[in-house]
Amino acid sequence: MSDVYQTLTERGFISQVTDAKALQELLAREEVTCYIGFDPTAASLHAGSLLPLMALAHMSRAGHRPIAILGGGTAMVGDPSGKTEMRKMLRREQIRDNGRHMETQIRSFIGADGEVIDNGDWLLDLNYIDFLREIGRHFSVNRMLSFESYKIRLEKGLTFLEFNYQLLQAYDFLVLFRRHDCLLQMGGDDQWGNIVAGMDLIRRIESQPAYGLTFPLLETAAGEKMGKTARGAVWLDAGRTSAYDFFQYFRNTDDRDVERFLALFTFVPLDEVGALCSGEGAGLNAGKERLAYEVTKIVHGEQAADEALRAAKSIFGEDGESFSGVPATEIARQRLSRGVLIVDLYAEVGLCKSKSEARRLVLQGGARIGERRAQGIEDKLTLDDLDQGTVLIRAGKKKVHRVVTEKGET
Question: Is residue 322 part of a domain?
Answer without folding.
Answer: no
